[in-house]
Amino acid sequence: xxxxxxxxxxxxxxxxxxxxxxxxxxxxxxxxxxxxxxxxxxxxxxxxxxxxxxxxxxxxxxxxxxxxxxxxxxxxxxxxxxxxxxxxxxxxxxxxxxxxxxxxxxxxxxxxxxxxxxxxxxxxxxxxxxxxxxxxxxxxxxxxxxxxxxxxxxxxxxxxxxxxxxxxxxxxxxxxxxx
Length: 179
Fold this sequence. Notes:
By secondary structure, this protein is mostly beta strands. Helix content is 0%, strand content 53%. The protein contains no helices and 16 strands. Strands 1, 3, 5, 6, 8, 10, 12, 14 and 16 form a nine-stranded parallel β-sheet that branches.
């Protein structure tokens, strides 16, 4: 799909994903709310040049055994921008970013990982050239969002982190600037 425009959409209580995007390019999604879906709230794979504005996931993923207990699942996404997007109280990860590059924007991760699951606000794996401002907060106990940010095999990127009660873990601290 190309040049898709969607705004003011609520996706709720689907048996699978809330919003699933595959091979979508040059599109804009604004004020999308995806909550209480069995798997991820918003998923995008092999997509590029997209903009997400004021989109939120909330309480997605039914269990740790769920195939995708995420708020946002981004895989193979390129050259995309996130403005004021949020993941709150999703089952395991707020954002799970894998094999992506050239992502930018501002996001909020709030109390992800629920019911004694060791949650992560944002997990970035095998990705490069991202420039993200992340605000990580946790208004629940530490078992909800055990770390604000977790990074593995990332390079040539800037991650600016502000946090209330979050911790940062990384196997590749030398490859990413964390402030």
